[in-house]
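User: Sequence recovery, please. Input:
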């Protein structure tokens, strides 16, 4: 009897953990979006400086515009944040079962809705505002994340069948 309870608790934890990761990632995105424009820009400028240092090592003397590189860094942050969110979301939806098109579609929908709500949230953050193009960038990142998850899932499935 005690063993059945333990298995049940372990199964619940196993089912909830992927969703906990999704919500923690959403919380991270929310907190990054809640930063006033000056704080957000300061953070991205720090990352941009590191990127420029690395690029200058790869191609010394390259004429790189700090503002342009900072813009690329900021938009890539959007893309990759939602790529990760999509991977976490589709994995949580899958729950160890067979991956379906509906799961992938639902994961994309969740990411697009969250990206849209995140842009609306920025209306209330000093110096920030909603940008439709950011929702498209976020959605593209999510789509690629789901695609990567699908390809890895297919590869792992084939490897398992071949063993």
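Assistant: Recovered sequence (163 residues):
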């Amino acid at each position: 009897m005690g063993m059945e309870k333990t298995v049940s608790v372990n199964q619940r934890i196993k089912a909830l953990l992927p969703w906990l990761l999704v919500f923690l990632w959403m919380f991270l995105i929310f907190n990054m979006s809640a930063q006033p424009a000056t704080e957000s820009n300061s953070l991205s400028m720090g990352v941009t400086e590191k990127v420029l240092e690395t690029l200058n090592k790869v191609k010394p003397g390259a004429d790189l515009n700090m503002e342009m590189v900072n813009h690329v860094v900021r938009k890539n942050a959007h893309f990759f944040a939602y790529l990760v969110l999509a991977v976490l979301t589709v994995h949580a939806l899958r729950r160890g079962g067979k991956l379906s098109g509906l799961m992938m579609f639902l994961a994309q929908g969740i990411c697009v809705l969250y990206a849209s709500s995140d842009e609306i949230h920025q209306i209330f953050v000093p110096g920030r505002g909603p940008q439709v193009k950011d929702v498209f960038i976020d959605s593209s990142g999510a789509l690629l994340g789901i695609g990567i998850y699908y390809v890895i899932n297919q590869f792992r499935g084939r490897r398992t069948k071949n063993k």
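The chain has one domain: 2-162.
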